[in-house]
Amino acid sequence: MSPRLQRLCSPLNFAGYLAWAAISYELIFHRSPVPGLLATGAAPVPLLVLLDLVFLAAFVTITTCPDRAAPLWWERALVLLQLVVAFALMLNARAGSLPVLLILCMIQVVHVWRPGGALAIMTAANIGMYLVYRDVWQTGAPLVGTLMNLSFQAFAALTSWFAITAQRTRDQLAAANADLLATRSLLAETARDGERLRLARELHDVAGHKLTALKLNLSALARDRRSRDDGQVLLCARLADELLADIRGVVAQMRSNDGLDLGDALAVLATPFPRPRMHLDIADGARVRSIAQAEALLRAVQEGLTNAVRHSQAQNLWVVLRRDRDALRLDIRDDGRGGGELQAGNGLTGMRERLEAVGGGLAVDRTDTGGVHLRAWLPVAA
């Protein structure tokens, strides 16, 4: 099942569809003509059905859109359209369930406006509903009806707001956890490299020293007339030579540092984000020599991923790490649909500073489709 279809069939959206269906039934079959200011006869059913379908279309569009996939102005326009349609229906027909449409709208308002803006919209909507109760529907107690509906709106909006806050906190914790896992993987790789170097030193300083002393003593013993022709002494001397050569070979191999492997650390960064999907391509020879270089590359990929999540509405992120002679080149690009000139914020500035601290650099531009393209480089030698 596609992500959009999953959102379409989610339990919360299904509850909204059920409420809309009940309102539509009353609107079409059990409505009353509006009295008072607009008493010009019953509104035609096709007009009511059209307005009702426009509300549903706007509701489905905004609730099935992926998070941050649509511009904020577009989401706000859809919510305002639903509010306008809801009031248009209340001005053309009298049905007790029509104010429930405002509750559905307020659930969405807190998603796309800050608390101050959401409160202003809720206040204006309820003033309008009070006027509809008093002057159009001419109910007996318009203020009581307005306050009752306001309480339901506030309850639904607060519940939605707490759900948004919980989701944002969960995303922040997931991102922090991924950062810690990536850092742990990097530290583990560094610890393995340090342990390998320590063992190489121990073998060279302890075993190598004692084997050298043993070899010298066996050589002196072999020159003694009493043991010159002793085959066991000659065999021990030859074995000591071979063992010393083997240990030197092992020490040389353990000291040969081919760099830190960033594959696991980079792959774990994308785990908390459902979008974009990160495509990681690391060449075999693209390994860093120091922890400073590794951290600079790790933070560069992390910032590229964060920017793609927050700003680009990208579905895919490609990360390529290659070695080009004496330099490592990191290429990060996404398939977002941004536009305009890129402004270097704190994230990009910090990325550039980290790379320059290890002798590298950063170039930022846009792709042909409007996505972000980051190109970083640093020298192979630390």
Percent helix range? 55-70%
What structural class do you assign from the helix and strand content?
alpha+beta
User: Beta-sheet strand percentage?
Assistant: 5-15%
Q: What is the mean predicted local confidence, pLDDT?
A: 79
- Which strand order does the major sheet show? 1-2-3-5-4
Order of helices and strands: HHHHHHHHHEHEEHEE
| Number of discrete domains | 3
Largest pleated sheet: 5 strands, mixed
Radius of gyration: 35 Å
The number of helical elements comes to 11
**N-C termini distance:** 48 Å
Q: What shape does the CA trace take? A: rod-shaped
Query: Which residues form runs of ≥5 with pLDDT under 50?
Result: none
The total of beta strands comes to: 5
Write structural notes for this entry.
This protein has 382 residues and is of the alpha+beta class. Helix content is 64%, strand content 10%. The protein has a 5-stranded mixed β-sheet. A hairpin with a 2-residue loop joins β2 and β3. The radius of gyration is 35 Å and the shape is rod-shaped. It starts with a helix and ends with a strand.
